[in-house]
Design brief:
Immunoglobulin-like, 5-stranded antiparallel β-sheet
């Protein structure tokens, strides 16, 4: 039988050392304004796997996390239903978080989701800049194409949520499919949209999560429902098992935390360069401009490729530079959005050596054979003429052949009418020419 603990209108401190679990319960019921505060890297472990594990009654209750590792570990296993964590900010504003399991995960004995949330207050200050207190698995708050230091924290709410299905010893083999609901305080004085943000308290926001394997925020843009109120909500965020990573925030719908360019490469074959690149999601993209340079400085725009506009998931592009000069070449990609803004990628490089093959064109006139030949390198070669039976009917001594475009005259007498094959005796230089001799 599960146990239940009721907390009324008083403060309970859970203080753990080095992440120690200091409290495990079958059920927790918070009623009439009761508080449960998790501090010092402590865990609240909920062994009740159904949504009844944490509930509120009367005038409600409050759980304060305000730290990445002040966590609730809810041992949900393969259960379904809507789990609500009654989070409350350090300023006393209730911001409940909902986690609806719509497709069950695997049923390991300790399979759990770990929840926490926090904002700038974890620094003991009023810092709006999320880049200064991002979760430990997040490497940047950067821009779409380059991943270079272009901090977009002004476009996101000043709060992170941790929804972790992969904590060591408590993770899922197969993660569930879920529907998330976020609540945040839009107040500028004590809330989650601070002075210094570009977004305002009324800016429509959507959920984004960080994908560590891709090192990207925006490989998927999740559809959602935004609503204003005393606290704002972003709900109906549907997340499949492969997209359920741990660190989440809310971003400006018009200016989401964009993804990095997943890949951009150039490869030369003779005088043609194939350019390939991959984006994850795109939002409001118009087209790509391709820039080429031979010295890494002076760049020439050599092509335009239409963009997807809006897409979720991985999208690949290919473009050919058919007139690439010889030598080291440097390419850069410029992504242009529908509003005219643009972003430049880093340069990628390739080398074109232009390895040509010999070519020969021959004909008979006025008692001689004439051969026009194009050679990448010079050399020496003898010549032989073969009849249809494969017999040698004429030879010419070794002569010097020069690189580039040249014509060679081979005098010929006493050969009957027919089809012949002329070969350069040095096969490293030569080739065969079919001749019709009248």
């Amino acid at each position: 039988m599960s146990t239940a603990t009721r907390y009324g209108s008083f403060l309970l401190l859970l203080i753990g050392l080095n992440g120690t679990s200091v409290m495990a319960q079958g059920r927790v019921v918070l009623n009439d304004g009761g508080w449960l505060r998790i501090d010092g890297g402590a865990w609240l472990v909920m062994e009740e796997p159904t949504p009844a594990g944490i509930s509120t009654s009367g005038s409600g209750g409050n759980i304060r996390s305000e730290g990445e590792f002040n966590r609730i570990r809810w041992q949900i296993r393969n259960n379904v239903g809507t789990y609500v964590v009654p989070f409350t900010t350090a300023s006393g504003v209730r911001t409940p978080f909902s986690f609806e399991v719509v497709g069950a995960g695997s049923n390991e004995a300790t399979a759990s989701i770990c929840f926490s949330t926090y904002n700038y207050g974890t620094l003991g200050g009023t810092n709006w800049d999320n880049d200064g207190y991002r979760p430990t698995d997040v490497t940047h708050m950067h821009n779409y194409f380059t991943g270079a230091p272009s901090n977009n924290s002004d476009q996101v709410v000043d709060r992170f949520w941790i929804v972790d299905a992969g904590v060591a010893s408590y993770g899922y083999g197969t993660r569930p499919s879920v529907r998330l609901g976020f609540t945040y305080d839009p107040g500028a004085a004590t809330g989650d949209v601070r002075t210094g943000n570009t977004i305002t308290s009324t800016s429509p926001l959507a959920a984004q999560r960080f994908n560590p394997p891709l090192d990207a925020w925006g490989d998927v843009l999740f559809a959602s429902t935004f609503a204003l109120g005393p606290v704002n909500t972003v709900t109906n965020v549907n997340v499949g098992p492969s997209d359920l990573f741990r660190s989440w925030t809310l971003s400006n719908v018009a200016q989401p935390l964009p993804v990095r360019l997943v890949g951009f490469a150039a490869e030369c074959t003779e005088a043609r360069v194939q350019l390939t690149w991959t984006t994850a999601s795109e939002s409001g993209s118009s087209h790509f401009l391709i820039w080429r340079s031979s010295d890494q400085e002076a760049e020439q725009m050599i092509g335009t490729v239409p963009a997807a506009g809006h897409s979720n998931g991985i999208r690949s592009y290919v473009s050919m530079d058919n007139d690439a000069p010889a030598g080291n070449l440097y390419y850069r990609l410029e992504g242009v959005d529908v509003d005219g803004s643009s972003q430049l990628s880093d340069q990628v490089t390739t080398y074109c050596g232009h390895v040509d093959t010999p070519s020969f064109t021959g004909w008979y006139a006025d008692g001689a054979l004439f051969v026009d030949h194009h050679l990448p390198e010079g050399g020496h070669s003898s010549w032989e003429l073969y009849n249809a039976a494969g017999q040698v009917v004429a030879t010419w001594p070794v002569m010097e052949l020069h690189p580039g475009e040249h014509r060679t005259r081979l005098p010929l007498r006493g050969v009957s009418t027919g089809l012949y094959t002329l070969r350069a005796g040095n096969r490293d230089i030569g080739s065969a020419v079919r001749l019709a001799i009248p």
